[in-house]
Amino acid sequence: MADTIKLDESWKAALAGEFSAPYMASLKSFLQAEKQAGKVIFPKGSEYFRALDLTPLGKVRVVILGQDPYHGDGQAHGLCFSVLPGVRIPPSLVNIYKEMQSDLGIPPAKHGYLEHWADQGVLLLNSVLTVERSLAASHQGRGWEKFTDAVIARVNEQADPAVFMLWGSYAQKKAAFVDQTKHLVLKAPHPSPLSAHNGFFGCRHFSKANHFLEEHGMAPIDWQLPAQV
Asked: Which is nearest to 173 in space by CA: 190, 197, 193, 194?
């Protein structure tokens, strides 16, 4: 699958064993069969690994974990919580923006396109990288979770420390093995409207992340998104 899809070379090398594993062959066959059956899969094939392609392994400074791609038309493009320009900002991202404004004084962006973060070393990784249109969680348990576990493990093994922002119990369980003696692991409830008021608001993860990066001699993340995309 790595040979046919655009992917940064650092990740191709680090994940070579995963791409050659039987579970990935099975996953590829599943996706091909779904497409042949006429099902619409999000995001498009060239964007399955967009998060990895935009954020090479050696440049990862922050990891934000999501669960599944958005399953509505025109939303998903390979980065968790992010939507394409012109698409309505999803409720969870609205709340992320609210917390950023409270924490850093950054006014909410008028769009939900987060590539500016990815370009700076923020790995915006979903646990499952594909979904069937209009069917949330439809590709869970097909192999993506094992692959993205390996992605997190490679970041965990890096010599340089990183910040893991784990929002909600799903993300916290998935990255439970991360070495907290080396990396900064920040935990809060999910920014969903159902749970944001239970401790996501006020978590100050954005300023905490930047403080940690600066303490370790790394540039902070410019969380303010461009006005125009």
From this structure: 190
- Angstrom distances, CA of residue 33 to CA of 27, 37, 77, 175: 10, 6, 21, 31
Distance CA(151)–CA(129), nearest Å, equals: 12
CA distance 80 to 114: 9
Query: For residue 63, with 0-12 CB atoms within 10 Å meaning exposed, 13-18 middle and 19 or more buried, which class applies?
Result: buried
Residues 6+ apart with CB under 8 A from 13: none
pLDDT of residue 7: 85
Instruction: Provide the H-helix boundaries in the chain.
Output: 9-14, 16-19, 22-36, 50-54, 91-104, 115-119, 144-157, 169-174, 205-215
Alpha-helical segments (H) within 37-125:
50-54, 91-104, 115-119
Residue 199 tokens, joined: 């401790």
Using a 10 angstrom Cβ sphere, with 0-12 exposed, 13-18 middle and 19 or more buried, the burial of residue 166 is buried
68 is catalytic: yes
pLDDT at 1 over 70: no
**pLDDT 10s digits, 99-129:** 999 999 999 999 999 999 999 999 999 999 9
* pLDDT reported for residue 86: 93
Active-site entry in 3, 8, 53, 68: 68
